[in-house]
Give the backbone structure.
Amino acid sequence: MNRMNYVLKFLLVGLLLLLPFAYVTHLMVEASKKQSSFNQKESYGVEYVAAALDLLGTVEDARVVSSAIVAGDSSLAADLARDDEQIRSLVPRIDALDGRHLEHFATDDGQHPCSYRWQQIRQLIVERRPHRGLSPAIASRPMARSRPSCAPGS
């Protein structure tokens, strides 16, 4: 090192200090790319969950109205028809999201899951008849079940 002139010494020291900085910068850029990709997939999931939440709320309303109709309150038939139409408009939205984000979610099992499964559920809730694809245990299950208590000591 004593034989090198000052210009070469400063270049060598500068290069030795910049190599770790360049490596750390490279690692930071790669981590940022991974995080950006994850955030994009997360936004797809938020879009899907929002649509599913709308559908779930409407199905829950239809289930309550359907139970009331079976119990004898026929004045709610218009509400059930409204819920049915709203669900029919929401199901294609979820199918479209399934199709658009299929590679990210891996939710498709060979058929349009939401529309296919809604047909099964619809026969139970709206039409009040068992679907031949459901097991007898599920098809004969009562619509309103009490939930077990989660309180300590119960």
Notes: Residues 58 and 86 are 7 Å apart (CA to CA). DSSP finds five helices and no strands in the chain. Residues 43-139 form one domain. Residues 133-154 have pLDDT under 50 and may be disordered.
